Prior knowledge:
This protein is mostly beta strands. Helices cover 8% and strands 45% of the residues. β11 and β12 form a beta hairpin.
Amino acid sequence: xxxxVLSGLDCELFGRLESGAIGTPAAGDYLRLPFTSHxxxxxxxxxxxxxxxxxxxxxxxxxxxxxxxxDIAVPMDxxxxxxxxxxxxxxxxxxxxxxxxxxxxxxxxxAGDTVTLDGxxxxxxSGAPATATEVQTGANLLASVTALAAAANASVVAExxxxxxxxxxxxxxxxxxxxxxxxxxxxxxxxxAATVSGATLTATYTHTYGSGCSAxxxxxxxxxIRSTPAALTWRQLGVWMTRAxxxxxxxxxxxxxxxxxxxxxxxxxSAALGDVVTHAYQRFLQAQGSLLVDGQQVxxxxxxxxVYDNSLSGVRSLGYGGRIxxxxxxxxxxxxxxxARFGSGTLKSRAESDTPVDxxxxxxxxxxxxLSIAYPRVWLPKPQRSISGxxxxxxxxxxxxxxxxxxxxxxxxxxxxxxxxxxxxxxxP
Length: 429
């Protein structure tokens, strides 16, 4: 038998939310999950023998309990993130949103090139437009796409006027239908010298997740990590997410670190994954993100992080072989940090006034793809400042979030609400 070293390059990760009894693998079609590191694994320790009267040399150790836990780092991507949010916060409330599509140009359009928007043909011309459907080519690609968006937005043709047109990344015409629901997905697209996102607009959905769900709404999953070249497959059953951490910076790629515990891990010859669902991969980039304080962009902020601790602890019950059979839930903890240039700015004044602020983290690479995480009630401490040189001084605010609660009410608005917009119809198992 040829020995093959396990390589991270060859590993694939799959997951599906469970709905059956603990220890029963989730049945159905699994989702292929992008990841950047994987530490979820089972281990069984050894316990030193406590026998006496056997001499000074130790006797055989006893088998310890099985523990399955670890972290998985995953990219924040437009579609896969919904699975991890469901594992953390429970299933979302999903509603139809506005259909979205795009026309992407690889080069500056030339005279005679056409773009057809739901049956209306727009033609690029080199001179001044003579009709409402002619678009003058610009000095560069951005100018040409901007002119196309302006012409489409000004159109009085009912089918064209039923959508809104914007410029994406300087090379793309983004199209979002003005009406939510499936009817917008009937809007057709075509182009003679550009790439359309599809023959029609794509139906989109908003998935709304709220913190503080009841214990019965917390979901568990079956996870499978495999390496086909090394002929190795591990399956973790009854996986719960205990903690999630996310950082926001001015550059780089957005990633989430999920801390997990599980009922058990099996090494299997193969795992039934059904018809694996592989979503088109589109990552949220940090440059596409923003952090709003009370609805306003604050220039002094340079970085931020957020942590959601589910406060879950495993319960080892009799009859389960020493494994975790269920979870206990406690009060969730929502906190994070904001790093900012220290001065007479918004954060300093709000911290000193001891009044809560509203934080909104959001990423939106296009109208049909977005993620927002809202904390309506965040408390900022007065930070310690440190001056160590001639450069600008930074301060770190370790914030804490709480739910918005009316007088006499037990539950009101969630302490955190995440809204994901994409073309996935459902995350339910």
